[in-house]
Specification:
Blueprint lengths: L1 E5 L2 E6 L10 H12 L8 E6 L3 E3 L4 H4 L6 H10 L1 H10 L4 E5 L2 E3 L1 H8 L2 E5 L3 E3 L13 H9 L1 H10 L2 E3 H6 L5 E3 L4 H13 L3 H13 L5 H16 L2 H12 L8
Parallel strand pairs: 2-3, 3-5, 4-6, 5-7, 6-8, 7-10
Antiparallel strand pairs: 1-2, 8-9
Helix pairs in contact: 1-4, 3-4, 3-11, 5-6, 6-7
């Protein structure tokens, strides 16, 4: 992961282009730690993007192929890594802007949903692809997605794992706007500069109020999500989904 600060902007870039910026537990931990260090006194915005042609292809399938830990240990692992990303992004008093320069799949899509503002390159592709490897949406997906796109749309995206383009993502309000690839940097820069002209402490308080006033407190939703994810990680569907991905074939889930 590449991290830099430039003129009050904390820039975070997934830097595993060889695997389309897939997120391992180590990457998730580093992402959370970096966001937690953001200070409103020093930063007026955080920008998350990806190196190369993808924003993030989601969870690291190679890591998923490893035998799962015992349930309690697995629960702690997911809570302290991808669950920690949820906490860091939703509690950060510094506004987070996702610059979706390429495909955002699975956990990558969830990071976009957790961001406060998001712009996507018009040629980016999205998918809530967890079901394709026998998992439920995590990294906040089970509660942020329906809050953003609506319950019925969220169910369809999560149940089918369908792929959709940036224009559809904008229609669903998963991103604020889909822009031509050569205009993405400028659009994000304009927004970040505008944020720099606003009181960061007030933005932080506004963000906190908006999140606290959701129908259900996100901590409760995150804990339930993590509990179910542990069950999914130990399932035959997850094992088959990972195996099929690695073998380049369609998974054969039990009906």
């Amino acid at each position: 992961m590449h991290v830099d600060t430039d003129d009050g902007v904390l820039e975070i870039r997934f830097d595993r282009p060889g695997v389309l910026n897939a997120m391992s537990q180590a990457v998730a931990t580093e992402l959370a730690e970096t966001i937690e260090r953001a200070d409103p006194d020093d930063h007026h915005a955080i920008v998350i993007s990806g190196e190369g042609d993808a924003f993030s292809a989601g969870g690291d399938i190679e890591a998923m192929a490893e035998p799962p830990s015992p349930p309690r240990e697995s629960y702690e692992e997911v809570t302290e890594t991808f669950g920690r990303v949820v906490e860091a992004m939703l509690e950060s008093p510094v506004p987070i802007v996702a610059k979706v320069n390429g495909d955002a799949i699975g956990a990558g899509l969830a990071v976009v949903a957790l961001s406060d503002i998001a712009y996507a390159s018009a040629d980016a592709t999205f998918s809530c692809a967890f079901v394709r490897v026998g998992l439920i949406p995590d990294t906040g997906g089970t509660f942020m997605l329906p809050h953003i796109v609506g319950l019925r749309a969220a169910k369809k995206l999560a149940f089918t794992g369908e792929f959709f383009d940036a224009e559809r993502a904008a229609d669903l309000e998963l991103v604020n706007e889909a822009v031509p690839a050569d205009e993405l940097d400028d659009r994000v820069r304009e927004t970040v500069e505008r944020l720099g002209r606003r009181p960061t402490d007030v933005i932080g308080m506004t963000k906190q109020a908006l999140h606290e006033n959701m129908a259900r407190h996100w901590r409760e939703a995150a804990d339930y999500e993590n509990t179910l994810q542990v069950q999914a990680r130990g399932s035959d569907s997850h094992e088959e989904g990972v195996a099929a991905f690695l073998e380049g074939r369609e998974p054969e889930f039990d009906e």
